[in-house]
Design brief:
By secondary structure, the protein is α+β, with helices and mostly antiparallel strands. The protein is built from 13 helices and 50 strands. Strand 25 and strand 26 (460-467) form a beta hairpin. 43% of the residues are buried.
Length: 900
């Protein structure tokens, strides 16, 4: 026979109190101290299918009017608590339904949309609900919070990539040959140009120490404080995975890098003496292609010394002078362009920001600026609240940057388009420093995306893309339609800033699926190239005096069986490049024949797109699958990058990247470099050319231009926050919530002042220096002010929340040692990023909601009239474990049923 005393002891009840269980039903009837909770064993739980049906019908998930309390005079906290629990339960039901296998895409989209709306409803409710005897917050309860966003302190030194391995006294290969460059140091009294020429060292070995000593002698003679140094990078063992085994490889030789130690108040620049053109290629590598890289090649010709293989470049190919791994969190690399100062802007999509620069949603677009040495200078986040994709970039002669793509959910604070779950086209223009000048989001009722962007004359910006329905002022043609938009930059307010004003939208294509895959502007003509209903089609638009386009002509090149990579105008001819399986494109006789499979093609057409005897067609490739990802033309040479795959290769077979140079006039292949990558998967995505961008400085890991430039302190430049993003602060002791709004000129310092004021001085926000971080950074710290009660920090409304961009969490910030009578706070720890976008997200949502409902149940127990702890006879602690409490609830329910 089971000993009831033993069982009760397991659950924190002594034999002296067992009689209360035996008479549970009678005692409950005679003295009820709390309303019956919706999770009680005596309550009838709603069916999951009913909750899903009600939620999809648009009913409120949190409805205090739908809560019944079975105890007269009960605190209003119970009604709020139960309403919140029901809302969380409904959200959980939506998540469970989304996880069902074989769910139709249309239903999955509806569930995802309603879940997002429900999370917003929950967030709003928690920020406005006023509890009397306890506190429920969306985030967590803590004594202080620090922003994960961090601003790097102005650097005083610059470290190159490793340029030598082995003994420090050995001759360095990178220093061999004709190595000369100029180093300019700007001081308070003037500018000193220091010419470095290693031939001046004579017969002295060009080791790291000897070369640095030579350079420092030149700097000292110039009277500047800046000095060069040597940095050792100790070798470490490496681990690799081989099947299920982890193999540790022995450490290789130590590596050595150059270090520039800047003098106080001195600005340092490097200039090359002999240069050649540089070709940059972005690529994805590995089986998933999500690991991004930036490769740099030295073009033939020019006066720069021959390229050398660097340290840690196992997939080196002739002509490659640099390679840089993009940061973790990059999911795709889409485009790139060279700025007037020689830097390279890369368009990447992130599923996670860098540790010091979080993103707001589940996917965002980043503009990453690299110097000529492959050093990341700046990352400008678009700041999408939910998800965004970037497809195209253009850079004007004045350094302005235009970015085009698609966004789902809010981009500009609080504006989510006609349907927050459907992608809309966007275009954003930034100045050369990454500061946003203007953004336009213009979409159709159904999905649409901007795939190409280009600057025109007199402040015009042209955007092309595709849409599944009618764009504003147009009619749909069927399937995906192509479109072309023109924006004129002008102020819409007196003395206001320039913004992009839409002056024209043209929708065109066929009854099938159409797309614009390339676009260029040449004088008064604008050309697009894409695939329309399976055929490669080029279109010419004439631009009037106001820059408004009108369709003038088009040309069908035949079935594409591939894609378009680029279009440009060279010497009065239109050049279209792409890849195709069609061995007989309708362009004329081919200079080089199609070799089988998929080949790259280069088509030269007349500028009016009329068929001409001067039309030329060149195929390039082998018998396998050759693709063209991007193309650029300079000095009559066509540079193309893409992939090579062997004939008959499967999707998991090796894929090589290539960079080819082809003479536009003759079709002759002048060079073709191919390379492998990690996992035998190299997938180039974009190409750009920098005039004079390659030099001996590449060997040394030094960039052309200024180094050690300080990061912008503006939050709207350095983080994902956008002007108008918000969060609110409510004093713990009661009072109205005060909204904190991000302005264009806000910095960490100004934001700290806003937080202190909004909290009624209940919180102390300040900028602290994190000396443990490498490099040293500054963060925002928020804690309870001395002798104060603290405050609740709540997320902003959907589409305009600033907390995620700053890496701050919502919740209660309270004193380290609260008063014994202080209101107890329960944190639900629910992130605003929860979604039903994919299986991993669904699983995370289900787990988070389950924890949140547990927190609500804990808050219910805290409202019980008796606060005397029950001793657990097995552990001696003041309460039983969560598992024991659950088992006790089941045991009590069983006893009640037996005794009924």
């Amino acid at each position: 026979m089971i000993n009831n005393s033993y069982l009760l002891g397991l659950y924190g009840i002594t034999t002296d109190t067992s009689s209360s269980l035996i008479g549970a039903s009678t005692a409950a009837k005679t003295k009820k101290t709390q309303p019956t909770a919706p999770w009680s064993s005596t309550a009838t739980p709603p069916k999951a299918s009913d909750m899903v049906r009600a939620a999809l019908a648009g009913r409120r998930l949190i409805d205090e009017g739908n809560v019944s309390l079975d105890l007269a005079g009960a605190s209003s906290d119970y009604r709020k608590m139960f309403a919140l629990y029901q809302g969380l339960n409904s959200l959980s039901a939506l998540a469970d339904r989304a996880g069902v296998k074989g769910l139709a895409a249309s239903e999955a989209a509806l569930l995802s949309k309603r879940f997002g709306e429900g999370m917003a409803e929950m967030s709003t409710y928690l920020s406005t609900a006023s509890f009397e005897d306890m506190r429920l917050v969306q985030g967590v309860a803590q004594t202080s919070v620090k922003s994960t966003y961090a601003l790097e302190r102005a650097p005083t030194s610059f470290l190159t990539a490793p340029l030598h391995d082995g003994a420090a006294t050995s001759t360095v290969k990178a220093f061999e040959g004709d190595v000369k460059f100029s180093m300019t140091v700007k001081t308070a009294t003037g500018t000193q140009a220091v010419e470095m020429d290693l031939s001046e060292m004579g017969a002295t070995d060009r080791s790291m120490g000897n070369v640095v000593a030579y350079m420092n002698g030149k700097l000292e003679a110039a009277g500047v404080a800046t000095r060069m140094g040597v940095q050792m990078i100790p070798a470490e063992p490496k681990t690799i995975k081989s099947g299920t085994k982890t193999i540790t490889l022995p450490a290789g030789p130590d590596q050595w890098a150059l270090k520039v130690n800047g003098g106080t108040g001195e600005a340092i620049r490097f200039q090359a003496v002999d240069t050649s053109d540089a070709v940059y290629v972005t690529q994805g590598v590995g089986k998933t292609g999500t690991a991004g890289q930036l490769l740099k090649f030295q073009a033939d010709g020019g006066s720069a010394p021959t390229a050398q293989q660097g340290v840690d470049d196992p997939f080196w190919v002739e002509g490659r002078v640099g390679h840089t791994d993009l940061p973790d969190g990059v999911a795709a690399v889409k485009a790139s362009a060279v700025a007037p100062d020689g830097s390279v802007w890369v368009v990447a999509e992130l599923t996670a920001g860098e540790g010091d620069q979080p993103i707001k949603g589940v996917r965002d677009v980043a503009l990453m600026k690299y110097d000529s040495g492959g050093n990341l200078m700046q990352t400008k986040l678009l700041g999408a609240a939910s998800s965004a994709n970037g497809f195209s970039i253009a850079i004007d002669d004045d350094g302005r940057v235009a970015l085009a793509g698609s966004v789902t959910g809010a981009l500009e604070p609080g504006k989510s388009g006609d349907n927050a779950a459907v992608a809309d086209s966007f275009v954003s223009v930034f100045d050369s420093s990454g500061k946003e000048l203007w953004t336009q989001r213009r979409g159709a009722k159904a999905a649409d995306e901007a795939t190409e962007v280009h600057f025109g004359a007199d402040g015009m910006v042209y955007v092309a893309g595709r849409s599944k329905s009618a764009m504003p002022g147009n009619a749909a043609l069927g399937g995906w339609d192509s479109y072309l938009q023109a924006f004129q930059e002008k102020p819409i307010k007196i003395n206001g800033p320039d913004v992009g004003v839409n002056v024209s939208t043209i929708q065109f294509g066929s009854a099938g699926d159409d797309s614009v895959q390339a676009m260029t502007v040449s004088g008064n003509d604008l050309y697009t190239a894409g695939v329309e209903n399976g055929k490669a089609v080029v279109r010419r638009f004439t631009l009037d005096a106001a820059g408004v386009p009108t369709l003038a002509s088009s040309r069908d090149l035949g079935y594409a069986s591939g894609a378009i990579a680029g279009i440009s105008v060279e010497n009065g001819k239109v050049v279209v490049t792409g890849h195709t399986e069609n061995a007989a494109l309708d362009i004329g006789a081919a200079t080089n024949a199609h070799a089988g499979g998929s080949d790259v093609f280069i088509a030269t057409l007349s500028d009016d797109l009329q068929a001409s005897g001067d039309d030329r067609l060149t195929y390039f490739g082998g018998a396998g699958a050759d693709t063209a990802a991007d193309v650029a033309i300079k000095d009559g040479k066509v540079w193309i990058t893409g992939t090579n795959r062997a004939e008959g290769a499967g999707k998991d077979d090796p894929t090589s990247g290539y960079l080819a140079q082809i003479d536009l006039a003759t079709g002759a292949v002048q060079s073709n470099r191919t390379w492998r990558a990690d996992g035998d998967q190299a997938m180039p995505t974009s190409l750009s050319i920098a005039s004079g961008g390659a030099s001996v400085l590449d060997r040394l890991g030094l960039p052309q231009g200024q180094i050690m430039q300080a990061d912008s302190k503006l939050l709207t430049v350095a983080t994902a926050a956008r002007v108008g993003d918000q969060f609110s602060i409510t004093p713990a002791a009661g009072g109205r919530a005060v909204t904190v709004t991000i302005d264009a000129k806000d910095t960490l310092e100004s934001l700290a002042k806003k937080i202190n004021a909004a909290s009624g001085r209940q919180l102390e926000a300040k900028v602290i220096t994190d000396l443990k971080a490498k490099p040293i950074v500054q963060r925002l710290e928020i804690k309870t002010a001395a002798n104060k009660d603290g405050a609740i920090i709540s997320s902003g409304a959907v589409g305009k929340d600033a907390l995620g961009a700053l890496g701050l969490t919502s919740g209660f910030v309270g004193p380290v040692t609260p008063d014994k009578d202080a209101t107890k706070t329960y944190g639900l720890n629910l992130s605003n990023k929860l979604s039903l976008n994919d299986p991993a997200a669904i699983k995370a949502a289900i787990e988070s909601l389950a924890q949140a409902m547990t927190a609500v149940r804990s808050s219910y127990r805290s409202l019980a009239p008796s606060t005397v702890g029950i001793t657990n006879t097995q552990t001696g602690n003041g309460s039983s474990t969560a598992y024991q409490q659950t088992q006790l609830a089941n045991y009590q329910a069983a006893l009640s049923r037996l005794l009924a």
